[in-house]
Task: inverse folding
């Protein structure tokens, strides 16, 4: 997760420093191509990981490529709201950390929340697309506030889910009395693929928290 975030930040900084945002690539077809490539990469990564059809080390390379493409996609948004980037980053980090700690220490069963959170995310992105067409500042402010709360809940859910999965797999490994070398190959998340899927989920949770906090703060200043 941290490697992906650092890659995204590094690519965004390099592009901002070396390439004018208002070049034809960013004002016409460029963002659409990058967004489509981003969705294709994440679909390829998750589908191959779930099918266990990926070579060792390839999953990390795909995650870093995805993170780099997302860094390029974010350049126009970061350039337009440069003054709010640091406050949004601090706010997003605080929300992510608080939600992560709560998800880690809570003993509540959060599985029933999974479907509700997923439907909430779908509704949020539909609202974002609709508001993008309407360009309603007050509605954008409310959507951003709701999105921050939604992804805070999703962060806690993902932390709880990953931790519970790790405990189940460790218990199953101990029950089968597998050897130490095999246990190291399986790992606490049940394999490199599951670990990458967990890292990808948390990466997206944090990134969406940051972007929604950024939109919230820029909307409040208008």
Result:
């Amino acid at each position: 997760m941290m490697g992906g975030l650092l890659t995204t930040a590094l690519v965004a900084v390099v592009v901002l420093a070396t390439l004018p945002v208002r070049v034809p690539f960013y004002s016409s077809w460029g963002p659409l191509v990058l967004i489509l490539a981003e969705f294709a990469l994440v679909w390829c990564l998750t589908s191959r990981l779930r099918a266990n059809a990926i070579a060792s080390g390839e999953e990390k390379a795909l995650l870093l490529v995805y993170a780099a493409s997302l860094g390029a996609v974010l350049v126009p948004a970061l350039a337009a709201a440069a003054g709010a980037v640091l406050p949004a980053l601090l706010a997003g980090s605080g929300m992510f950390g608080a939600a992560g700690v709560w998800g880690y220490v809570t003993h509540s069963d959060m599985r029933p929340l999974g479907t509700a959170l997923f439907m909430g995310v779908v509704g949020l992105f539909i609202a974002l697309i609709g508001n993008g067409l309407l360009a309603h500042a007050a509605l954008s402010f409310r959507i951003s506030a709701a999105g921050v709360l939604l992804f805070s809940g999703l962060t806690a859910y993902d932390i709880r889910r990953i931790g519970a999965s790790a405990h189940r797999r460790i218990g199953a490994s101990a029950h089968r009395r597998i050897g130490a070398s095999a246990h190291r190959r399986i790992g606490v998340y049940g394999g490199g693929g599951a670990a990458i899927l967990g890292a990808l989920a948390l990466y997206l949770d944090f990134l969406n928290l940051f972007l929604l906090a950024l939109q919230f703060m820029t909307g409040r200043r208008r």
